[in-house]
Amino acid sequence: MELVAPVVVEPLRRRRCAECRTGPLERMVLEFNAPLCLDCADLGHLVFLPRGDTALTRRAREASALWALVVRHNRRRTRYERQGLLVEEAALASAEAACLADAEARARRRARDAVRREAQDARVRESLAAEIRRLFPRCPEDRVAEIAAHASQRGSGRVGRTAAGRALEPGAVTAAVRASVRHVDTEYDALLMRGVPRHQARTRVAPVIETVLRAWQG
User: Helix, strand or coil for residue 20?
Assistant: First the structure.
């Protein structure tokens, strides 16, 4: 049977417990849409473990008979984001001891992983740069390097990290070059700062972009 952990919310506005009336609450559980403090929700004995240390989080969660996920609503992204866990204090102490015992080995592994990721990233950048040179042979070399590095940044979600970008599809590569030209070679950013709607700003700078792309294509 799949386990479902309780969810604890860090409220964005002042809330009081619907049962004991304590508040304002730093963290709460919503039960039938009513806020409960951790004590009333039977989670008051747990301690907070912030996100960030993957090994510590995993070990504390595995050692804790009861744990809860702590989230906070991000208004800008309109979604709840993980802040950490609530775990049993003994489980956290056990996890911390285990992490201290193998800290050196994990540090060596992280170093090896970082080297491997950098090598992978370098291959992605160079492949993308080579395709930019093929499609736009007159693009200045410094711009080729800049576009390839920007578009292939790990974890960015940009063109170079999409399936189409990794496959070096011409449309995806051209989109990366077009985006660079839009921001660097036109007044697009200045138009946005003056309050011009994005779609209008794009329409106004489109002729300049096409002129630059044609020049780079030779």
Answer: coil
Identify which of 83, 87, 8, 94 has the alpha carbon closest to the alpha carbon of residue 47.
Answer: 87
Helix (H) or strand (E) holding 59: helix 54-63
d(CA 16, CA 183): 48
The CA distance from 214 to 109, in Å, is 47
CA distances from 215 to 132, 137, 138, 179 (A): 14, 9, 7, 16
pLDDT at 61: 95
Angle at 64 between CA 60 and CA 66, to 5 degrees: 130
The tokens describing 206, both together, are 């489109």
CA-to-CA dists, residue 40 to 31, 43, 89, angstroms? 11, 8, 19
pLDDT tens per residue, range 98-112? 998 888 887 888 888
